[in-house]
Amino acid sequence: QQPVQSPQAVILREGEDAVINCSSSKALYSVHWYRQKHGEAPVFLMILLKGGEQMRHEKISASFNEKKQQSSLYLTASQLSYSGTYFCGTEFGGAQKLVFGQGTRLTINP
Amino acid sequence: DSGVTQTPKHLITATGQRVTLRCSPRSGDLSVYWYQQSLDQGLQFLIQYYNGEERAKGNILERFSAQQFPDLHSELNLSSLELGDSALYFCASSVRQMNTGELFFGEGSRLTVL
Description:
Low-confidence stretches of chain A: none
Oligomer: heterodimer
Distance between the termini of chain A: 37 Å
Radius of gyration of chain B: 13 Å
Number of strands of chain B: 11
Largest sheet of chain B: 7 strands, mixed
Shape of chain A: globular
Mean pLDDT of chain B: 93
Order of helices and strands of chain B: EEEEEEEEEEE
Number of helices of chain B: 0
Shape of chain B: globular
């Protein structure tokens, strides 16, 4: 039931783009994205609902492909502040629990 | 500051012991979630409460139990502790009942079992 994230780690130079994928084997109700900086608590980025629109948070956007049960997080023109571990969380209708993937560690170098 | 308060921030104890972690949700939030994060691991869902009632359960061990009190604070009890229980335990709160909305995470309680 745990979603699968890929890649596990990404290293970028400031200004480069990245894509993080999140896949589920079960039909999804929603996908949630969080970012956790080292030594801190996870912080909410956005929620994508089944049938909903693509969402944005600053220069970070995400999409939800219901057919493939997959979500992708797009980080455009990355900034140093984007460094951290990104987690996708998936929810199945009525389950009332948010199950997170293993995370993708993003490192942005100057 | 998310508004979610967790105590204690750090706890060191021995194998076989029992500990209680406490969480106060944001004002107005009725849902409380507990997650376990081991070193360099993801966030493992343990359990969720809404307004005092258990609503969802993850892979929570039988040695672990939780409850949410009438004032909405929650406690996670861990007993017969093992070395592998060493982890960061996060509490998160949400205003939603059905289908998780935005979760606000506390700073976590770091448990070390020696």
